Amino acid sequence: MFTGIVQGIAVVEEVTAATGLCTFAIRLPDDSAEGVSIGASVAINGTCLTVTKQTGNTLLFDAMQETLRLTTLGDLEPGHAVNFERAARIGDEIGGHLLSGHIHTTAKVVEILRPENNVTIWFDVPGEWARYIFPKGYIAINGASLTIGEVEGSRFNVHLIPETLRATTFGKIAEGMKVNIEIDSQTQTIVDTLARLGYDRPTTAL
């Protein structure tokens, strides 16, 4: 499990493609890989991956075709920056909300507004996932636990403070980019339960 509190920015050093999977060599900041063991879980842009090898601060991960299809990991190249979070331990403070690291879908950045001292980013998700997105609800974007601002059909926005921009890759985000989305599990359970009872929510704005 993860908390959605990004622990820093890592850098992709190498991407090796093989039949059915890709291997990523990702360098974490100094001391951030201390105590990592083979088999440990680390969220890379919100995607839970398993450490297969460690060389200093560089960790290796394998991602299967299904993971590459459902996430943005297939677009990663050497030099790209990614958000990372090591798995939470019992007793850790939950500063965001509980995440599984299982990506539901991707969203596209459609607009970036830069009022003084903050940034507002608008995203567009596939229509079938809009049913789970509510104003003031939780969502994880590239592994960061964020609060949803406004919702308009399949579009929604989040408001980011300077610290979030500094500590994550959102500081370099641009229109047209794709991001990984993990829907809040409690919200998904409630919406799906109501749908089974006949209280379905429209997936698009009227």
Automatic annotation (TrEMBL):
Residues 1-97, 98-194 form the Lumazine-binding domain. It is an enzyme of class 2 (transferase). InterPro entries: Lumazine-bd (IPR001783), Lumazine-bd_dom (IPR026017). Its EC number is 2.5.1.9. Pfam families: Lum_binding. It comes from the Bacteria. This is Riboflavin synthase. It comes from Marinobacter salexigens. The lineage of its organism: Bacteria, Pseudomonadati, Pseudomonadota, Gammaproteobacteria, Pseudomonadales.
